[in-house]
Specification:
Blueprint lengths: L2 E5 L8 H9 L12 H10 L4 H4 L3 E6 L10 H12 L3 E5 L2
Parallel strand pairs: 1-2, 2-3
Helix pairs in contact: 2-4
Pfam family, one: Barstar
Family: Belongs to the barstar family.
InterPro entries: Barstar, Barstar-like_sf
Length: about 100
Amino acid sequence: MSSLVVDLRPLPLVSLNDFWDAVAEPCGLPDWFGRNLDAWFDTIGTRGISEVIDAYEILVVRATPTGLFAPGNEDGMRLAEVFAQADAARLDLEP
């Protein structure tokens, strides 16, 4: 199974805007990408938005459980839920 692995662990992700900035280039997001959770689900779940992501069977995003993904961060929890709903994408929270 081919995987696109995007490692965000070295980056200080505090907000969703930080996340969108961090994934835009490695995921090949178009300039018109909506930078919201619905647009992200369309990209990783439905597909057809990013030729880069679509070239792989699965997208794996690695991040640390701090900042955006710290326990209790509502934006991080909603983003993690989007990953959980997508069959061909996974969020790995690693130290």
